[in-house]
Amino acid sequence: MLRVGEVPDVRPGPGQLLVRVTAAGIGFADVQIRAGLMRTVMPDLPLPFALGFEIAGTVVAVGSGVDAKAVGGQVVGATSGGGYAELAILPAAAAVPLPEGLDDGTAVALLGQGATAVGVAEAAGLTSTDTVLVEAAAGGVGSLLVQLAKRAGATVIATARGETKLAVAKQLGADIVVDYSSPGWPQLVRDAVGGSVSVVLESTGGAVSEAAFDLLTPTIGRMVVYGTTSGQPPRFDPLAVYHRAVSVTGFASVALPAHHLARLRDHAFALADSGELRPIIGAVMPLAQAAAAHQAFEERATVGKTILTP
């Protein structure tokens, strides 16, 4: 159950900032934790637990060891929880000054998902000769990947569910849009591109991943796996990777060294500041509607990033 409640104000400890939150992002991890799907990964999670791992806001106090000049500054950063709040604790080491030219919601939308999209695009080695299949192309990361693939000069096939999401992908520059809830959608892709694709950016898992893998061009095809939003692992025969001479690469931002993740994040911020990357803010909702926002996320009714405001 997700509900709003009154709790005592938190106080910053050593090396911490106290932030008055202006924007908190909803991510896949938040929804999984609330649904009880992270018990194996986080067996000692204290209950009740305050969700929220991505925040932006104004520093109102600092703990010991932190320069008092930080007070009054606008920052964005990743917390260990508690971001769905009016006041939240942010490690000073994780705080990034809000980039000039970006509002707080845009910065939150790029903080994790922007870094992921840039990292996935790099892992795929996108070029102007590629034909790229982007799954969940109207989602927080997928919508950014459509733009990054087009920026690389690739031909982009965007898959999503429903006309609204397909229209969003088309507006972002996708050359071809396909509803992957339609029976026989892989054949629609084959017909549109005249055969196969060189790159699949895989975030769904299950049957969708299996069909997408089969679309890869032998000898040059490559898949980057960065999520399993269906709750099912990717499906493909490891022997087929060998027999078809294709590659499958995994990308997980949580596994990256801090300096590598910071580089990807800063690159995403810079691209947004220059107008080359535009995160989609699908909804801005008050904190009191967090449960409704989670329900929409689970029902796949959201587009881009959902932001909560206290």
Could you characterize what this model shows?
This protein is an alpha/beta fold. The chain folds into 2 domains: 16-98 and 280-309, Quinone Oxidoreductase, Chain A, domain 1; 114-254, NAD(P)-binding Rossmann-like Domain (Rossmann fold), CATH 3.40.50.720. It is 32% helix and 22% strand. The protein has 10 helices and 13 strands. The strands form 2 sheets. Strands 1, 2, 3, 4, 5, 12 and 13 form a 7-stranded mixed sheet that branches. A 6-stranded parallel sheet has the order 8-7-6-9-10-11, sandwiched between helices. Strand 12 (281-286), helix 10 and strand 13 (305-309) form a beta-alpha-beta unit. Helix 3 crosses helix 4 (140-151). The longest helix is centred in the last third of the chain and has 16 residues, at 258-273. The radius of gyration is 20 Å and the shape is elongated. The mean pLDDT is 93.
Low-confidence runs (pLDDT<50, min 5 residues)? none
Largest sheet: 7 strands, mixed
Mean pLDDT: 93
Count of discrete domains = 2
Fill in the CATH topology of the largest domain.
Answer: Rossmann fold
Distance between the termini: 19 Å
- What is the helical fraction, as a range of percent? 25-40%
The chain-level structural class is: alpha/beta
Radius of gyration: 20 Å
Helix-strand pattern: EHEEEEHHEHEHEHEHEHEHEHE
Percent of sequence in beta strands:
15-25%
The CATH architecture assignment of the largest domain turns out to be 3-Layer(aba) Sandwich
Let me know the number of strands: 13
The CATH homologous superfamily of the largest domain is named: NAD(P)-binding Rossmann-like Domain
Provide a count of the helices: 10
Shape category:
elongated
> CATH class of the largest domain, please?
Alpha Beta
Keywords: NADP, Oxidoreductase
Protein name: Zinc-binding alcohol dehydrogenase family protein
Domain Enoyl reductase (ER): 1-308
Pfam families: ADH_N (PF08240), ADH_zinc_N (PF00107)
